[in-house]
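FW: tagging you since you asked about this chain on Friday. Here's the raw sequence from the shared folder, copied in full. Didn't touch anything.
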Amino acid sequence: GHPIQYILQKMSCISMKAAYAFDEFITDKDARTFKVASYTFVVDKKDLKAAQEGVRIGAIVADAINRARHWVDLPANMMTPHSFADNAKKVAKDYDLKITIFNEEQIEKMGMGGLKAVGMGSQHDSHLVIVEYKTKKKNAPTLAFVGKGITFDSGGLNIKPTGYMEDMKDDMSGAAAVINAVAALSELKAEVNVIGLAALAENMVSGNANHPGDIITFYNGKTAIVGNTDAEGRLVLADALAYATKHY
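HL: got it, structure written out here
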């Protein structure tokens, strides 16, 4: 592509990312981060079209990144597996994506033992969210993105110590990236089919929690012993990967 398009794409994306702030819950409005009213890029008139296209692409990418950042910044009492699924529904509607959401009962019926096991100790049910973008281009390849969506990771019965648990609301960042990447690819009309799978669970401690030493059966029929309940990411991703492989 045109070098000016590439430069403006980078500039607009970086500028919009730099302006992001998680400040909506600050009660003192004067203490909130400044808001950028506008950006001005100066280019040669002959490069105007290429520059405009660069800004358009950069803004689409930055919007997706900043939305993912916002989801990650939301605390675990506001970003549960269910509320993540609700956010994904809105994105699917806004970006014309097909969306499928499986609840915990369906997950258990389908035999997704990993995703079920990780969420057992939580009051919040596990979910599997799938978004799909289809290109109009014939014979296009299909890619699957699979994201880890642990809305809070206490470590389970192998509980994390102080100093290691405080930022574990971030453990759903893979799932946030996947859903919003598919949205951006849809808006950019990418010539590829993309499936985004978000495996969502809250890994908590309770009388219902899975134990170290439990044997679980995954969606593809494979079995595994849970050696450590704080190694939960691979358990939820295994079921999502098995589902993607079988159906797509």
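FW: Residues 179 and 196 are 6 Å apart (CA to CA).
HL: agreed, and The helical segments are 3-18, 48-73, 81-94, 104-110, 113-119, 173-187, 233-247.
FW: great, closing this out.
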